[in-house]
Structures are given as C-alpha cells and as structure tokens.
C-alpha cells in the first residue's frame, strides 16, 4: 500500500474513537497507524495495561478486529497459540488462508520486564507475529512506577526525587538490541511523529517469515508531566536529541532511518516535569553523565550501521 495521507484517509477505522485513553496519549495514535498499515485481516492480543483498560471496559470494546486479552505477562504466548492454530486449521482445510496477520500491542512493563521470558520463548520458536511495544517508559496504568525501560534520572513513584535519590539510578534496558540478538528477521525502533517511517516498518515486519518486533516510543502526558497538545512534538524531540533513535535491523543488517542535527539532552529535560529536578545546579553532574550515556549509545548505533554498510 502506498503511504499517502489521502489514501489512508479512505481506510476504515479498526479502533473506534470511543475509547477512554487520556487526552494526549500516544498509544491509540500508534495503534491506528499500525493497523492502517496492514492490508490483511488482523488478530490482536493485548496484555493487561493502559491500552487494555481504556479500550475494553466490560462490557464494551473499541476494537473492530478479533481481540484477545490474557494475563500481564503472556500476550506473546497467547498470540503464538492463535497463530499456530490458524496454520493448523489452514493445513487441515478447515479454513481458507486469507493471509491473516497476528499482532501484539504491549506496554514496556509487559515487554521489558514481566513478559520478557514469554516473548523470548515465542520468538525463539519462530512464530510468525508482530510484537509492538508501546513504550511509555514506566508502569503508567498502575501509578507511574519505574520499569527497566525508564530512563536514568526520571522521576517515578518508585524512583522518587529527594535528598537521597535523584530519580531512577539505572540506565534503561536496550530491548531492541535484545530482540535482535534472537536473530529474528526484523526489528526496529519507531515513534508516532514519524508516521510514514513507522507504517513502512510495520509493512516490512508483517511480510517476514517469522517473528518481528517494533519498539515504539509512546509519550505519556500523565507520567511524563507535559501539556496534552505536546505529544507529537515530544516524539520528534526524542529523535532529535538521540534519546530515541529511529532505526531498523533486517536479517542482522542495521540501518539508520533518521540522522538529526543533534540537540543537547537538556532540551529533552526541559520539556517534561519528570526531569525538572535535573535542571537544578546541584544536579549538573548527573545531566553530564546522562548526556555521556546518550552520546555513547548513539556512537555505538552509528558504528553498527556503518559495519553493516547501511549508515
């Protein structure tokens, strides 16, 4: 499908507008972009989290596609089971193969932490599905607790700011690289402001013969502490500061999708209340440390892309 706004505007919605997401939430924007990009029937699994809560308050649903909710940790296992049964029924001649695609939408808590072993197992077995991590960098649904996707220095309710602790002390986990290490055919990082980039990656991901993974930054107005209308601007700022690079890895080949005129990390901190404490003079050393981490990770990514001949 050609990715033009005019053509996309003619497509029917697969997620109804009557959901209960917070104003400024990026998750439903991302879900609509992903579903619009797939020109096949879709089966979706969603674990416990913000998306499940706001789209399926019993007895209602906002989904126009077959949708499965299981436990917090096992959406990858759930979609693997559905995909396996589909292949079995097609093989038995009981249903027609319509090219149905299987997709998981899961938060960072359900991906980086609670569901990691389930995701790793499903990927290792080679099930054909797309796993989309809606990464808002904390457990937002249950009160803004830190996850292993939460960046260093961020305030959360379990990494508070005070005289002893100045936000989260640890750097975040590199989940995309972990998935690449599983030798899957396709993995990528994306963000909702770059809609064409995200949707093109989705189209590539659903065509591969095996599992695929896309980690999508999902700004959260409640947890990040910003004004609701700034969601897409923050998405772009994340890419421009290199806090969230946009890249893809196809059969082990790394390719950078966007190379910005790099902005300092202080621009990122100024944009959100969860980082406001880092702008105090006494925390200047921590800002410098975080900038160093971002610079190191960016240079490592560039080297990976250069080694792969795709920079």
Label the overall shape: globular
Number of strands: 8
Main beta-sheet annotation? 8 strands, mixed
**Strand arrangement, largest sheet?**
2-1-3-4-6-5-7-8
The total tally of domains equals 1
N/C terminus separation:
26 Å
Q: SS-based structural class? A: alpha/beta
The first-level CATH class is given as Alpha Beta
SSE string, helices as H and strands as E: HHEHEHEHHEHEHEHHEEHH
Q: In the CATH classification, which architecture applies?
A: 3-Layer(aba) Sandwich
Q: Provide the residue-averaged pLDDT.
A: 96
Number of helical segments with 4 or more residues: 12
Low-pLDDT segments, ≥5 res: none
CATH topology value: Rossmann fold
Strand content: 5-15%
Helix content, binned percent: 25-40%
Radius of gyration: 19 Å
Instruction: Find the CATH superfamily.
Output: Thiamin diphosphate (ThDP)-binding fold, Pyr/PP domains
List keywords for this structure.
37% helix, 8 strands, 311 residues, 13% strand, Rossmann fold, alpha/beta, globular
Verbal overview:
The protein has a single domain, classed as Rossmann fold, CATH 3.40.50. Helices cover 37% and strands 13% of the residues. The chain has helices at 5-8, 27-37, 50-55, 75-91, 108-113, 116-124, 175-180, 195-207, 221-224, 231-240, 265-270, 284-307; strands at residues 42-46, 67-69, 101-107, 130-135, 186-190, 212-217, 247-250, 253-256. Strands 2-1-3-4-6-5-7-8 form an 8-stranded mixed β-sheet, with helices on both faces. Helix 2 (27-37) packs across helix 8 (195-207). The longest helix is centred in the C-terminal third of the chain and has 24 residues, at 284-307. The radius of gyration is 19 Å and the shape is globular. The mean pLDDT is 96.
């Amino acid at each position: 499908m050609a990715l033009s706004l005019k053509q996309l505007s003619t497509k029917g919605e697969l997620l109804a507008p009557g959901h209960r997401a917070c104003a400024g939430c990026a998750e439903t924007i991302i879900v609509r972009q992903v579903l619009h990009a797939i020109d096949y029937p879709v089966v979706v699994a969603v674990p416990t989290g913000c998306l499940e809560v706001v789209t399926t308050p019993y007895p209602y649903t906002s989904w126009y596609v077959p949708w499965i909710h299981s436990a917090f940790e096992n959406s990858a296992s759930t979609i693997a089971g559905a995909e396996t049964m589909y292949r079995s029924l097609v093989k038995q001649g009981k249903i027609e193969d319509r090219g149905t695609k299987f997709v998981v939408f899961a938060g960072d808590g359900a991906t980086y932490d609670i569901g990691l072993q389930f995701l790793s197992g499903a990927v290792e077995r080679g099930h054909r599905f797309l796993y989309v991590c809606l990464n808002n960098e904390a457990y937002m649904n249950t009160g803004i607790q830190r996850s292993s996707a939460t960046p260093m220095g961020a305030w959360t309710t379990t990494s508070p700011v005070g005289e002893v602790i100045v936000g989260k002390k640890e750097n975040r986990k590199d989940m995309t690289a972990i998935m690449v290490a599983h030798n899957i055919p396709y993995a990528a990082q994306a963000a909702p402001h770059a809609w064409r980039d995200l949707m093109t990656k989705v189209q590539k991901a659903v065509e591969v013969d095996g599992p695929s993974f896309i980690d999508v930054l999902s700004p959260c107005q409640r947890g990040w502490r910003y004004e609701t209308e700034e969601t897409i601007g923050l998405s772009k700022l994340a890419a421009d500061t290199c806090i969230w690079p946009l890249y893809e890895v196809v059969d082990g080949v790394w390719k950078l999708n966007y190379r910005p005129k790099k902005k300092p990390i202080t621009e990122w901190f100024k944009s959100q209340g969860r980082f406001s404490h880092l702008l105090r003079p006494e925390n200047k050393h921590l800002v410098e440390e975080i900038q160093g981490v971002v610079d190191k990770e960016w240079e490592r990514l560039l080297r990976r892309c250069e080694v792969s001949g795709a920079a």
